[in-house]
Amino acid sequence: MRVLFANVPWHDIDETGRGWRGIRAGSRWPHTLPCYGQDMVGGYLPFPIFLATACALSQRSGFEAVVRDCIATGEGYDVFYRYIEGYNPSAIVIETSTPSLKNDLEVAQTIKAMLPHTVVIFTGIHFELEQEGFLLSHPEVDFAVYGEYEVPVNDLLISLRDSKGFNGLTNLLYRVGHSVMKTPAGELVDLKQLPWPKRDTLPFDNYYDGVCGLARPQLQITSTRGCPFKCIFCVWPQVMYRSNKYRMRQPLDVVEEIAVNIANHPYRSFYIDDDTFNVNRRHVLETARLIKERGLDNIPWGIMARADLMDENMLTALKDAGLYSLKYGVESADQAVLDEIGKRLDLDRVARIVRFTKDIDIKVHLTFTFGLPSDTVEGIERTIDLACSLPADSVQFSIATPFPGTTMYQTYQDRGWITTHDWQRYDGAKSAVSRTDQFSGEELEGFVRLAYHRWGRAKAECMALSSEFRERFRSRLSAQLSPGARVLLFQCATYTLTQGLLALLNDMPYEVHLMLHERFTGSFTGLIDTRRMHVFTHPADFRYKQLRNFAVELKEKYQFDGTVIPYSNPNGSGYDEVEQLALEAGAQIVAGVANDGKIVK
Is there a shared CATH topology between the 2-182 domain and the 208-463 domain? Predict the structure, then answer.
């Protein structure tokens, strides 16, 4: 029996390469990203942990199984359908999500039209999968498996292969005549019983979570599942696990998986993508000890953790084992709001731990959310102030998105705050789908824009554009350039950092030019003569192959004496193509400026 586990295509790109692409399998927050004329691979991309583990489990059960990640390869719909036709699977397992559901159902319809005997199984984080009406409304789907699906899908495949029927199966919805039967949820699997995820058919070098400049290619793994805290917005514990139970793998097995994969591929970093890595202190310290013991501490790595569960000794041990960066979820500076949503952080401890984390040179990414139930204007202003005051290397400001199936969704539905049931819009990366008594959706979107602007401005003013930096920057350039030299500044980081560098360059005895994508022109109008703004429209960022000719033409016309590169992270990681372009456009890179004010190149 041939089985395909698929993260199917999800994008809308026109003939010029503009539009959007989606992030789905492996993400706790399915969302879309804009495309401005670039290919569909690059930037944040999570590893499809459930699909890949389910594939490995089915292979262990004797199936001919493959996992295919169309999101990770940037694969178009036509290419995927040609593959499906050639592979001709007996069954296909599709991981869906709330915002991608409409797209995924259309893909299932096409598959059924092509291969009517292929069994289509839907899984993923969308609440309708466990409602009987879902299968009645969508004949293109044969089975729905809800919750954490690796073991239930494997049991279903065995039953289909061996004609055993469905008695005793868990987490399953199936048709009987014109009715739908639903089986109860089973116990969560002991993680020690699961195989390592299948990776050999996946693009090892495309999965990436930058976390303050972690290098790529990057290995992504998990060491635990679940979180004992009860944040009302968190999707995986409520929809995927249906439990706040915290489960751990054996640290020895985790480190062995890291070591084996790094031996097989040239990974330059790894990321332990746990819901909350540091719930169990013994697990953390043993994992750190084994990483160091295996000689893996020379590879930078990252985690997601709770700041109030950290302490100085734990952070020191993690740093000693090579930890490079981590994410802390803060969400709000209003203690009452944190308590109300189940987060229950101690904000004073958070601030102390964030500062200690930075003091021992572990990079910090912080997340904040606007539109929580009791948010006020004053509370959001304090949250932005807190974000600007903490020494974070990067931040994320999100709009509260009440995904169906969560306590947040039910609360907002009961209060009449849900403004749309168009699931495609459930994407907190770009738009609001709810309001509160205090805010409209448009006001929340405005607060996100304001927060990013204020944080970027504060970062630039307090770090990169401090008096100490100004002196170092002037000295660096004057040692390499003569008065009157032509300098090309790239807009390849946060626009506020580039604006600050531009202002500083304008006060120096050089002829300054700016190379930027068209979407940023408004941010620099009035700061530089438009005749010295060199605008490109394709691709969206500094891709070497697409922009090489543009850079060479600029060099031939203006004879730049040097280029200046701002970096969106603390070390310039991931900027290889930008640096290639800088050398094509100018005689030398005179300064590469990190977002923390260091001149790193």
Answer: no
